[in-house]
Amino acid sequence: MAKARSTFRCSACGHTVAKWVGRCPDCGAWGTVDEVASMPTRATGGGGVAPTSPARPLTEIDAHSSAAIATGIGELDRVLGRGVVPGSVILLAGEPGVGKSTLLLESVKHWARGGRTALYLTGEESAGQVRMRAERTDAVHENVFLAAETDLATILGHVDAVNPSLVIVDSVQTVVATGTDGVTGGVTQIRAVTTALVSMAKNRGVAVILVGHVTKDGAVAGPRSLEHLVDVVLSFEGDRHSTLRMVRGIKNRFGAADEVGCFEQRDDGMHEVPDPSGIFRHERDVDVSGSTAMVTMDGKRALVGEIQALTNKSTMAMPRRAVSGVDSARVAMLIAVLQSRLGVKLDDQEVYVSTVGGMRVTEPATDLAIALAIGSAVKNQPIPHNTVAIGEVGLAGEVRRVSAVARRVAEAKRLGFAHAIIPAGTDEKLPSGIRITRVDNLAQAVAAKSRDVVDAPF
């Protein structure tokens, strides 16, 4: 056997160095490098160790033993990939007060009503507080077991006693592994707790859902290895000023990692929103200047929204530019393109651009809708309410191709739109029953904005 020696490992990212340093050379964190004892290595040419269970042909493995079990919440099952897989570990992270515990109580309710046993372990609230929320959301059921516990060994004892098929730990940052160094919620403690829970889930075939905290930047709190240990990572997002909540997949070993589930938080719990486009779009039957419909992709889901723009004459040397729900730098670029390529005078105009319903837009496929809305507002020329604009606008004024145009047009058609303006380079097979106008540049898009093609831009 080779001689054992000490090494130094970063508790934040796991990077190993030969000697102690104050700052990790890999992740840049300060004060996270600790000494660890290396296990002695076996000499070259030594014999192997007999496995506890022999390897079997892949054809003999039972695939039905890992079949997903539906939670009863369609939007959550969409993100998970048909449901919860026995033996899997799911990490649900989100900001405080966004509704993580409420959503999990909804899941527990449907799980128990399906004749299965669930164990809810809370380390942040008392059992009485959870019972009050369960009564408010109608989640009280005899198959739901509740315990307020933060000690890891005791938690594993509860699992042995109840023998549930679903375990929820709220939250992983509050659980303490006795015998492990580090403070509660620290990197070392979180890694030890998660490792033990993952081992328990795999050995017993129990599905485990961990609630995690997030940092001020929106990232999952704790070591990066936490996301590698679990099977599924979900991000629960929401605005404090809106009831809309979104569960977004970040990592998923059992399905697509770019799905999005929509919910609405009410007094009696979380409610599914299978058609969120109605929230992001203002229903109206009249044409209004400065308003254009758009279609944005959130994961694999197409969402129809509305962009509104308002311009106002200004006497200031630098007119104000204010945006809400869109990228301010992107809007500034589109204003410059409108002035340079189409001659739309905006240097003496205040420009305000906003989305409807609190929608947040980040992809460039909404450039065309924003540009048309601004031009419509400054010239007071309404764009038909049944027209939707899709496309990215370049600095030369060209309209560039975007992804998933067919899916966007299909969603617009489903909601009753009759006309879609799309990039000319689109080669996807588009649905029938909606009028399509293909444009190469912004000037052609302006000319095609009305029901009948006009001969003058704005």
Automatic annotation (TrEMBL):
Q: Does the keyword DNA repair apply?
A: yes
Xref: Pfam families: AAA_25, ChlI, Zn_ribbon_LapB
Q: Name one GO biological process term.
A: recombinational repair
Where along this sequence does the record place binding of ATP? 94-101
UniProt entry keywords in alphabetical sequence: ATP-binding, DNA damage, DNA repair, DNA-binding, Hydrolase, Metal-binding, Nucleotide-binding, Stress response, Zinc, Zinc-finger
Task: Give start-end ranges for motif RadA KNRFG motif.
Answer: 251-255
Q: Which residues cross the membrane?
A: none
Region Lon-protease-like: start and end of each range? 350-458
All residue ranges annotated as the RecA family profile domain in the record: 65-214
Q: Which InterPro entries does this chain map to?
A: AAA+_ATPase, DNA_repair_RadA, P-loop_NTPase, RecA_ATP-bd, Ribosomal_Su5_D2-typ_SF, Ribsml_uS5_D2-typ_fold_subgr, Rubredoxin_2
Q: Spell out the CDD domains in the cross-references.
A: RadA_SMS_N
Q: Which family does it belong to?
A: Belongs to the RecA family. RadA subfamily.
UniProt xrefs under PANTHER family:
DNA REPAIR PROTEIN RADA, DNA REPAIR PROTEIN RADA-LIKE PROTEIN
* Domain text: The middle region has homology to RecA with ATPase motifs including the RadA KNRFG motif, while the C-terminus is homologous to Lon protease.
Q: Any idea what job this protein has?
A: DNA-dependent ATPase involved in processing of recombination intermediates, plays a role in repairing DNA breaks. Stimulates the branch migration of RecA-mediated strand transfer reactions, allowing the 3' invading strand to extend heteroduplex DNA faster. Binds ssDNA in the presence of ADP but not other nucleotides, has ATPase activity that is stimulated by ssDNA and various branched DNA structures, but inhibited by SSB. Does not have RecA's homology-searching function. Plays a role in repairing double-strand DNA breaks, probably involving stabilizing or processing branched DNA or blocked replication forks.
Q: What is this protein called?
A: DNA repair protein RadA
Annotated gene: radA
